[in-house]
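Follow-up to my earlier ticket, as requested here are the two runs.
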Amino acid sequence: MDEPRSRPSRPVFPSRPEGSSPYVTSAIGLEETEGRLRARKSSLFMRTVVWVTGMICLAFLLGSLVQAWSNSQLMQRLAVTQQQTQQLQAQHDRLAQQAKYYQDPAVIEREARQMGYVRRGEHLVIIVGANDSSQQKSGSSAKTAQPDNFWQEWWNIFFGNS
């Protein structure tokens, strides 16, 4: 009924498999088994996977650092640009207010009269005060005095009447 279970027998490894080398390790039975070869290959694969994963992580880390530095530089440029924009907006507001001020007809007339302009049909009258009359007399007396010679005229031009 119950059949005796047969135990799996251990694999028998020849002392020297075909194609193996006759070194000392094989002579004393220490040659590498298939399991050890598989383990070594697996270990090499795992080391390769770890190294590749490490390199990928390092690349992501460096990329993140570069992106953070780039963002920092952009934020600084943004702050400077916003400050310039505020200054230009303030200047624009001042100029707009000044333009509105100078559009008033009363301001235009006052500025024009200060520059000596008159309206059509008006005559410009200059009133000479008491102080101005003394300067006018000295100017007319200078015109009446005739210089003695050519050099005296140059002397009077540069150094005044003496």
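Run two:
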Amino acid sequence: MAELPGSVLFACSMNAIRSPMAEAILKSLHGKRMFVDSVGVRKGELDPLAVEVLDEIGIDLSRHRPKTFEQLEDGFFDLIVTLSPEAHHRALELTREMACEVEFWRVPDPSLVEGSREQRREAYRALRDLLVERIRARFPPPAGPSL
């Protein structure tokens, strides 16, 4: 198994859906084995549908408080995973003078889906499932029960 990074930062546009979901999923798989955080380029409000669809798989996101790059307490990470083009550009600026890997994961923004509440909820579930799959592949969990 490849060595896992000691610290991972997930970044998206507003730290309201994609990056906090990814942070919570990775924490649920690895607990305290690595430091995991998330930020946005701009500060947003936590999206209730993100909380709802993670709750369906036993992950509590309700205490997450969105923050920006400027509000990071620790500015050093082994890996930054960006989930929006805007966040990717900001992460590349941030890491210009530090040794840090930056990966861009193209994932959909479920808040752009229009339709009924159930259609919107399905878009959030699709994002959740995609993030679980990508995170499990990139950061293989230890043997034992998991998502």
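The only thing I checked on run two: Residues 7-138 form a domain with the Rossmann fold fold (CATH 3.40.50.2300). Let me know what else you need.
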